[in-house]
Amino acid sequence: MAANEYARRTVLKETVFSQALGKERSLRVFLPPGYNELVSHRVVYCQDGEECFNFGRIATHATRLILDEGFEPFLVVGVDVDMPNRTDEYAPDGSRFGAYSRFFLEELIPFVESRYPVRTGAGDRVLVGDSLGGTVSLHLSLQVPHSIQRVVALSGAFLDSSLSAIESAGAEELSWLRLYQLIGTEETAVATSRGTFDFLEANRRMRTLLEAKGADVRYVEKAGKHIWGFWQDELPEALRWALGE
């Protein structure tokens, strides 16, 4: 494939006013090669949207999957983060988590589905997030298992509140969930605004709990740090798995 085919892409910028959040939120929307308004497409939604596009290079990865590997064209929607409020919005015990959940599920997704020809089946929406972005993606899916069943968590910040939520689920209750879980072996002392945590051990515990509840988990543990340089390289495989049948 000629190099200019990979470089030629369409990324639109959108703005959504959220009643739940009381402010505007910026989006970027990747339209894939072969985009056709008469055909419905699957959608990958990314937390930390600007970083996922710029540092994760998700538009490049998506283009290569479509052009080189024959994946059916899909859209990517990056939801830009409100950095001062990131922890409050993304952490399940955060003060703005409920508002962010309402924005994402009741405002953002309907906005995208009203403006673009996308599929609305439970397996047609994929949520991607890094660190706390992975946490909020999993918790959003737990709120609407009939609507969102595929999640990619890149070094998810699965701390006590998340582990407790999964632990409280009934046996086989999460058999609907398809989760790609990546964690680096060097993530044993990750500094956050709430303290320093062993994300490696937390992810190992999360995997055990999820599998005990019947979730379909692709767990990948390899050398890596809590940085986009690690996640960028692993994102294509994560998308392959999440978008597979």
From TrEMBL:
Highest taxon listed in the record's lineage: Bacteria
Pfam family, one: Esterase
PANTHER family on file: ENTEROCHELIN ESTERASE-RELATED (PTHR48098), IRON(III) ENTEROBACTIN ESTERASE (PTHR48098:SF3)
Identification of the protein by name: Esterase family protein
Taxonomy of the source species: Bacteria, Bacillati, Bacillota, Bacilli, Bacillales
